[in-house]
Amino acid sequence: MTIKDTAEEWQVTASQTPFVGNKTSVRTDDVVMPDGTVVRRDYQVHPGSVAVLALDDENRVLVLRQYRHPVRHKLWEIPAGLLDVPGENPLHAAQRELYEEAHVKAEDWRVLTDVYTTPGGCDEAVRVFLARDLSEAEGERFEVSEEESDMELARVPLADLVRGVLAGELHNNCLVVGALSLTAVLQGDGVDSLRPADAPWPARPFEA
């Protein structure tokens, strides 16, 4: 038996957008159920995101500590950001985020995993990259603002992140997914088994 998610779209009889924000919006759809009834579903419409698990030659992961107002926490996270331009190549976006948030570049890029963060209430799709062969980026540092102005950077052993996740001490979804996925890869078929950085992404199609 093959376990695999499949694309499917149920009939929508009506749709409206009661709220439009700066980067996301809320949509209300009337969806036909298998028994013929129609139910209303509200969900956040999201452009999509990328995240980068950057691993150095000492098996440490580059992490950031940032305030997240909706959950009233400072969370340890991996570099991440929105796909600001429709159809943007996610690898280019990931490289930009690693530079802007950590002033780091990487020579080796792979797709670690693709996830829907909260599919019951949001259509956000995230591609998590593995980046290796790290070095300091050239040029001036990107000027940060707002929550990022208080951001802390650290390099933490991968094993310590996994322990923190399982202890309930680390909660950022991209960090959790990235750290556990990479651990599985390293204990399994190895990094060379991962998809290339330009692998197709049906959730957010892009031009190479």
TrEMBL record:
Any one Gene Ontology BP term: nucleoside phosphate metabolic process
Coiled coil (residue ranges): none
Residues of the Nudix hydrolase domain: 44-178
Pfam families registered for this protein in UniProt: NUDIX
Keywords, in A-Z order: Hydrolase
PROSITE patterns: NUDIX
GO terms for cellular component: cytosol
UniProt name for this protein: ADP-ribose pyrophosphatase
Organism: Streptomyces alboflavus
This protein's encoding gene: nudF
